[in-house]
Amino acid sequence: MRVFISPARRLRRALAAACAVASLAASAQWEALRNDGVHDPRGPAIKELQEPGAALSKLTPDNTGNMVRWVQSLEKGEINPRANLNPNTKINIYESDVLLNLKGGMPIVRFPHRQHTLWLDCVNCHDGLFKKEPGANKLSMLSILNGEQCGVCHGAVSFPLTECYRCHSVRRPGQEALRPTLPIAIPPHAMPPK
């Protein structure tokens, strides 16, 4: 027997799971490599690799996710990631912001191209995850929470999806400037139909 789980219920479950992961990450410091469940504590590399706490504690702190404000660390010169593997590759820093979610109830999403293109070449997202044409992408929080679209990086590499107002940052006319605390109550008009 198959059980149908409504999109609204899946969205609530995914958001609850993301909140749980974020609160775990925020309550803990960086795990030692030999205890992280990823690295082999008996392998020779464990002696060669830098411990996350030693590396990350020197960067601009955050209170969630992997506990680092990566863009601020980059802008302050605390890190200097390699721009490309091939020295002949042209680096494109795209300065324009894109406003998304223009018809929803949450504040509008401001997508800052500059902060993303400081790290990634355009081909990392275009035309695989996102099409370049305005209006061509059907973004959905359910897809993002399922690790698709923006969720490919946010929640895995970048700040977690529980930080709603880092993306939903442009207030709509007449909208109060709200910064809710977790757990987040999803307004009924933001839920998909049952």
What can you see in these coordinates?
- The protein is of the alpha+beta class.
- 24% of the residues lie in helices and 6% in strands.
- It has six helices and three strands.
- The longest helix has 21 residues, at 7-27.
- The two termini are 20 Å apart.
Characteristics:
single chain, alpha+beta, three-stranded antiparallel sheet, 3 strands
SSE layout and pairings?
Layout: H1 7-27, H2 52-56, H3 70-75, E1 97-100, E2 108-112, H4 113-117, H5 141-145, H6 164-167, E3 168-170
Antiparallel strand pairs: 1-2, 2-3
Q: How helix-rich are the residues, as a percent range?
A: 10-25%
Percent of sequence in beta strands: 5-15%
Structural class: alpha+beta
Largest sheet: 3 strands, antiparallel
Mean pLDDT, to the nearest integer, reads 81
Principal-axis shape equals: globular
Q: How many DSSP helices? A: 6
Number of strands: 3
Stretches where pLDDT is under 50 for at least 5 consecutive residues are: 20-27, 181-187
Main-sheet strand order equals 1-2-3
Distance from N terminus to C terminus (CA atoms, Å) equals 20 Å
**Secondary-structure element series:** HHHEEHHHE
What Rg is obtained from the alpha carbons, in whole angstroms? 19 Å
